[in-house]
Specification:
The chain is mainly alpha-helical. It has 10 helices and no strands. Helices cover about 65% and strands about 0% of the residues.
C-alpha cells in the first residue's frame, strides 16, 4: 500500500470511528433520557405512576444497532491496519538484529532507503535495493531474510519466499540462526507449498546437524507430531544378531564348517 494511501486510510477510519462513536453515544443518551422515571415530590396527593408512559417506546428511530456496527467495524479496521504496520516494523528490526553477524551496529543509509520504499508500498523496488545492499554486504543476511519476508507477507509469493530461504540456508550462519530460518522454511513447505517431503527432510537435517539448538528441539517435537498423525513412519529398530554359540575348542581353533 502506498504511503499516501495508507495515511488517507488511517484518517478515514479514525474519522468514521469518531463519527459512529458520537452518534451511538448521542442516541443512547436520548433513549435513556426518554425512559427515565420522573420523581413525584407531592407526598399528599400520591399518584399511581404511569409506567406505560415512562417506559422506553417499543419502536425508536435511534438506530443503535447500525451506529454500533459502524463503530465496531471502523475500530476493527483501524486496529488491523495498525497491527499490520507495527508487526512489520518490529519484524524487520528483529530480523536485522537476529541475522546480522556483528549484532548491533550503525544503521546503513542504503538499507534504510530500502525500508523506506517498503513503507511506501513499493515492495519490488525495496527488494531490488536490498539485493544491491546484500551484494555489497554479503554477511548482512538479515537483508536476505527481509526479502523472503516481503515475498511471503506483502506479495504473497510463497514460492519466491521459499527460494530466498533456501539461499539463506546455503550461507554460513550461527547454528541457532540457521535452525530457525530452516524452521520457517519448513512452515512454508507444509502450509503454503504442499511439499511435506521437503519439510520432513529439512526437519531431520536440523536435528542431525544442529541437534543442540532450540530449533532442533522444535524440529523433534514436529517430527514426533507427524509420527503420531501417521504422516511419517516411526523408526523401526532392527533386532540384534544372535551371539554365536559357545565353543569348547582351544583358542585359535574354529568349528568345522558343514
Amino acid at each position: 500500500m502506498k504511503k499516501r494511501t495508507k495515511i488517507t486510510s488511517y484518517v478515514a477510519l479514525a474519522l468514521s470511528a469518531g463519527f459512529f462513536i458520537w452518534c451511538f453515544k448521542n442516541n443512547y443518551s436520548r433513549l435513556m433520557a426518554e425512559g427515565e422515571t420522573k420523581a413525584d415530590t407531592d407526598l399528599i396527593n400520591v399518584k399511581v405512576p404511569d409506567y406505560q408512559r415512562r417506559a422506553a417506546p417499543a419502536k425508536t428511530d435511534y438506530h443503535l444497532g447500525a451506529w454500533g456496527a459502524g463503530m465496531v467495524l471502523s475500530l476493527v479496521g483501524l486496529g488491523l491496519m495498525a497491527a499490520h504496520d507495527i508487526s512489520g516494523f518490529i519484524g524487520s528490526r528483529a530480523l536485522k538484529v537476529l541475522y546480522t553477524d556483528e549484532g548491533a551496529q550503525a544503521a546503513s543509509p542504503d538499507y534504510d532507503k530500502a525500508e523506506e520504499e517498503w513503507a511506501n508500498g513499493n515492495f519490488l523496488e525495496a527488494i531490488q535495493l536490498m539485493r544491491d545492499y546484500l551484494k555489497q554486504n554479503p554477511r548482512e543476511q538479515h537483508a536476505a531474510l527481509r526479502i523472503a519476508e516481503i515475498y511471503e507477507k506483502d506479495l504473497q509469493n510463497f514460492l519466491a519466499a521459499a527460494l530466498e530461504y533456501e539461499e539463506v540456508l546455503k550461507q554460513r550462519l550461527p547454528p541457532e540462526r540457521w535452525g530457525w530460518a530452516a524452521i520457517h522454511l519448513c512452515n512454508l513447505y507444509t502450509s503454503k507449498l504442499n511439499q511435506s517431503d521437503k519439510a520432513i527432510a529439512l526437519l531431520h537435517r536440523i536435528v542431525a546437524e544442529h541437534g543442540e539448538t532450540a530449533a532442533a528441539e522444535k524440529a523433534r517435537k514436529r517430527l514426533a507430531q507427524l509420527e503420531e498423525e501417521g504422516i511419517i513412519a516411526a523408526p523401526v529398530e532392527t533386532p540384534a544378531e544372535p551371539a554365536p554359540p559357545a565353543s569348547n575348542l582351544p583358542p585359535g581353533f574354529a568349528p568345522k564348517k558343514l
